[in-house]
Amino acid sequence: MLRSAPAQNQGLLSLKQGEAVLIVAASTIDSNLFYASSFLAGDPITYLQIGSKKMLLLPELELGRGREEASVDEVHSLLPWDQKIRKEKGRAPKLSEIQQVFLKEHNIERLIVPQNFPIGQADPLRDAGFEILVRKEPFFTDRAIKTDQEIENVARTQAITVEAMHHAIQLIAKASIQDDLLFLNGTPLLAEDVRLAIHRYLFDRGYHAENTIVAAGDQACDPHNRGSGHLPAHKPIVIDIFPRSLSTRYWGDMTRTILKGEASDEIISIYNDVLEAQKIALSHLKAGVDGSEVHGKVKEYFTSQGRITQERNGKMEGFFHSTGHGLGLDIHEHPKIGRARSPLEAGNTVTSEPGLYYPGIGGVRLEDTVLITEGGHRNLTDYPNELIV
Amino acid sequence: MLRSAPAQNQGLLSLKQGEAVLIVAASTIDSNLFYASSFLAGDPITYLQIGSKKMLLLPELELGRGREEASVDEVHSLLPWDQKIRKEKGRAPKLSEIQQVFLKEHNIERLIVPQNFPIGQADPLRDAGFEILVRKEPFFTDRAIKTDQEIENVARTQAITVEAMHHAIQLIAKASIQDDLLFLNGTPLLAEDVRLAIHRYLFDRGYHAENTIVAAGDQACDPHNRGSGHLPAHKPIVIDIFPRSLSTRYWGDMTRTILKGEASDEIISIYNDVLEAQKIALSHLKAGVDGSEVHGKVKEYFTSQGRITQERNGKMEGFFHSTGHGLGLDIHEHPKIGRARSPLEAGNTVTSEPGLYYPGIGGVRLEDTVLITEGGHRNLTDYPNELIV
Q: Using an 8 Å Cβ cutoff, are B387 and B263 in contact?
């Protein structure tokens, strides 16, 4: 499979004399490391930037692959350092000891690390006299501003997500109703069946989704409940699909809420309020605006419609999550569209996903992924919002 | 899908007055948190043990689901603490501020955290006067000693892994040879085809594998190279399959090396040495032995056969990875069977995977997953080792 090859200078930070960037992580789960190195490793490896050079310190096991695949300037083997310290101390060194010797030989005194840097790595470095500066997310400022290739990656995953959504909605649209429940070809249509059909559609095209939501009625009132069991007629079904490309590793994300049968006036009113909130959110999404302002507009609109957010009988109701989030190599990354301040810039790829949830009635969420531009946004989600199918 | 429900007291640590366990992580990637809470969340959540009570602090978004699914004693909403601090300070509090207020109200002074605890969370807690004790892995001692249910989970994943391996080997066995390359039904048989067939087999049964290795010739000499392109005849093909169950979340892991066509004497000799090394490793695996002793026996045997491990022309050759690793909720977890000391105990589930790699000739690795018992081990990998297919 093709793997996107980020530019050699992707993730370079501007450093002062004596400073180095240090990341110690498995790049299968740490997207900063993968962003900077283009190297996929399932166990923790050591990434450094010294001066304007990006480096990896790798165990023998990863050496050959690192030299071929990583988009860094230097790949060093841990082995000679291991042997050197082993000779001096008469025992196998810890990774942290090797890092220290390597850093001292490069006259490094100050380490710039991400917020998720492990304390088990940081404390020994501090004890050895290194100063540690924790740099806030986005650790690599340029990671939030997508390149054309990255926009293409997100757009491609989103296009397949749209296809998978259509495939799922068609299944539900074709269902028949019996005793207020959905049946397909004479057998009960389960949330699990629809989820599996979505996952299979994605698998066949090189995408992986794991926790796709197909949740109806009260299940959908917990926004992260994946949903289970026989799907009901006449109740809103929330379908939230967020797959990752197995080749580019970029995510897509979209949600539609549909209903087979007759919608009550109450459901229609909730749906229309969410649809209007989505229009309001999208109309405010552009470079220069702060994410918290967009979230504020959505909250304001819901309040103006009498939609109160509160806990009742141990369950939340109303609108109680963020309006959206950046996505790229992570499904949730900067910028955020929620309570905290987070400026939007051209090149951000973000979701917009207002929702309303009322236990006993049902949940509605509508979500598009868009690209922020100078003048507004480009919607990467080419699919209509229609409640009744 | 069914999700295994660990016992309510899974992951309980013995604490002194004023101490608490603290984990802040996304349980989709942090298995300690999932082990203790049975709660799957894709964004960082706060886990605490205070006294003998396990607790989660959750955002409104996760509250309803947490109360239903988590195997903890108390689920608290962040909301009232958020509102309380917001009233006092006139701004939205950070997660760390809420944690501090919660901990102080419970008279906690000392926090026990895992080695991967994020420094961006630890520093503010230290600044606020909390003492932080970093507890080494295995953070939860009992995580390395599998319960009957956990052994069943690993064994089940491993049984499906064996089936997927058989499926892959059958494909290669059925291939025909033309110009020293493999063809199936008249078309070139690619490493990618075999990998996709494995992934599809696993997908259809509720298992996910992503970086399955099907690597021949020189590709296999980088042990983590996934392999690509037209598969050759007369050369060893390393197949390493490590899927995760999407229901139980437990991993399996196995490797076979096969060859279609004629094996050279050199390849046969390498294969037989690895096979013998595997027998030696397995014969030493039992409770009370240290992993490093088993690794030492394998190294010793290879050395006795004249198998030197060294870097040559920028490539490693010989045996240059660990003999094995624990597996369970993580694909790599305690105990380790490598250079560092790591005692084996009854109830550990570990791999044994010696290998030899010679660029220009090829790589051979054989890997079983076994359960460590008092008197030896129970092999969970019911599949023969045969080079020629």
A: yes
Provide CATH code, domain B19-143.
3.40.350.10
**DSSP SS3 for B222:** coil
What is the structure's pLDDT at B217? Answer: 95
pLDDT of B8 over the 90 cut: no
Provide, rounded to the nearest whole percent, the portion of chain B with pLDDT above 90. 91
CA B196 vs CA A37, A115, A170, B200: distances in Å? 26, 37, 27, 6
CA geometry: angle at A226 spanning A221 and A229, to 5°?
A: 90
Of B115, B208, B340, the CB nearest to A118: B115
How many angstroms separate the CA atoms of B177 and B181, rounded? 6
Ramachandran region of residue A347, left (φ > 0), alpha (ψ -120 to 50) or beta? left
Asked whether residue B2 carries a pLDDT value surpassing 60, the answer given is no
User: Measured between beta carbons, which residues in chain A are less than 8 angstroms from residue B119?
Assistant: 113, 115-119, 122, 132, 134
Equal CATH topology for B19-143 and B148-379: no
Q: Enumerate the domain spans of chain B.
A: 19-143, 148-379
Measured between alpha carbons, how far is A98 from A102 in angstroms, rounded to an integer? 6
Identify the residue among B3, B23, B24, B61 best suited for mutation to test binding to A, counting A beta carbons within 10 A and taking the highest.
Answer: B61
For every residue of A84-112, DSSP letters joined together read: HHHHHHSSPPPHHHHHHHHHHHTT--EEE
**Nearest residue of B to residue A118 by CA position?**
B116
CB B234 within 8 A of CB B263: yes
The pLDDT value recorded for residue A2 is 32
State in words which class domain B148-379 has. alpha beta
Handedness of CA A296, A300, A301, A305 (dihedral sign): positive
Q: Give the chain A residue whose CA is nearest to the CA of B120.
A: A115
CA angle B84, B90, B96 (to 5 degrees): 60
Omega before B335 cis (within 30°)? yes
Query: Chain A contacts of B63, Cβ < 8 Å?
Result: 311, 315-316
* Beta strand A110-114 pairing with A131-135: parallel
Mean pLDDT of B162-174: 98
B81 falls in which pLDDT band (50, 70, 90)? Answer: confident
Compute the distance between CA of residue A160 and CA of residue A153 in angstroms, rounded to an integer.
11
Element (H, E) at B212: none
Neighbours of B162 (CB within 10 A): 20
Mean pLDDT for B326-353 is 97
Judged by DSSP in three states, B39 sits in coil
- Residue B9, pLDDT score: 82
Prediction ipTM score: 0.94
What's the mean pLDDT in A311-336?
95
pTM score: 0.95
- Which of these, B122, B347, B353, B314, lies nearest to B218 by C-alpha position? B314
Largest pairwise CA distance in chain B: 78
For residue B372, the Cα-to-chain-centroid distance in whole angstroms is 16
| Angstrom distance (rounded) from CA A239 to CA A256 | 5
Within 10 angstroms of residue B343's Cβ, the number of other Cβ atoms is 15
Backbone torsions φ then ψ of A204, nearest 5 degrees: -65, -15
Indicate if the pLDDT at residue B6 is higher than 60.
no
